[in-house]
Amino acid sequence: MGLVNVALALAILTTISAMIDWKSGIIASFTAGLTLNYFHTKPLHSLRITAPGDIWMITLLTALGLFTSLFTAFRVRKVLQQHLSEHADDVSHSLLTRLFENRPVADVWHESVESLCSELTLVEVRIDVVPNLRLPVIARLKTSDHRTNPQSVVVLPECGAVVEFSNPAIGSHLVLTPRTGMGSVSMPRSAVFAFVDQIERTL
């Protein structure tokens, strides 16, 4: 099989893998590039490349997989956010409609949280007692800050962030982390601290 045919076959496999799962696509991209280089370009069984055409072919093969993976990640994230937004609207409408009848407080509370901030469903949380974690800290705004910017939004990075409780005597803090594959997540600051304060009351 010629070099071009091998590269084409690897490109097809990489693209299919990237369209199914973006993380698998990234791995497949680098694997395909290394495979083409090591087994099919001269000198064989070496990572050295001597022909300029081979350099371009390996680069394009790897770039194709990476681009497709990024596109897949963006598409999945957009579809999920749209679904969450529509779900939050449905829950909000249902909540307003069904509040005219007696319902368990726990059910109403859960639905109100879903309608308030659907982005929280993209986040995982844990309590950590390790001081000075090397993570960003989501700070509480002063009262004056809330007046000047009532619609403030926090961007939770992919690595996660620490949120301190208002009572330092608790001796621990919450760590919020986006679910795997979600990247960074934007959330209303008020929703974040409403959740944190509620957890603090249960401790």
Please summarize what this structure is.
This protein has 203 residues and is mainly α.
Helix content: 55-70%
Number of H/I helices: 6
How many strand segments?
5
Provide the succession of SSEs.
HHHHEHEEEEH
What is the radius of gyration? 24 Å
Structural overview:
α1 (3-20) packs antiparallel against α2 and α2 runs antiparallel to α3. The N and C termini lie far apart (66 Å). By secondary structure, this protein is mostly helical. Strands 1-4-3 form a 3-stranded antiparallel beta sheet, with no helix packed on it. The protein folds into 2 domains: 3-74, no CATH class; 121-203, no CATH class. It is built from 6 helices and 5 strands. The mean pLDDT is 82. The longest helix is centred in the middle third of the chain and has 47 residues, at 52-98. β3 and β4 (173-178) form a beta hairpin. The protein has helices at 3-20, 22-40, 52-98, 105-116, 143-148, 189-202, and strands at 123-128, 153-156, 161-164, 173-178, 185-188.
List keywords for this structure.
203 residues; 6 helices; two-stranded antiparallel sheet; 2 domains; mainly alpha; three-stranded antiparallel sheet
Tell me the layout of helices and strands.
Elements: H1 3-20, H2 22-40, H3 52-98, H4 105-116, E1 123-128, H5 143-148, E2 153-156, E3 161-164, E4 173-178, E5 185-188, H6 189-202
Antiparallel strand pairs: 1-4, 2-5, 3-4
Helix pairs in contact: 1-2, 1-3, 2-3, 3-4
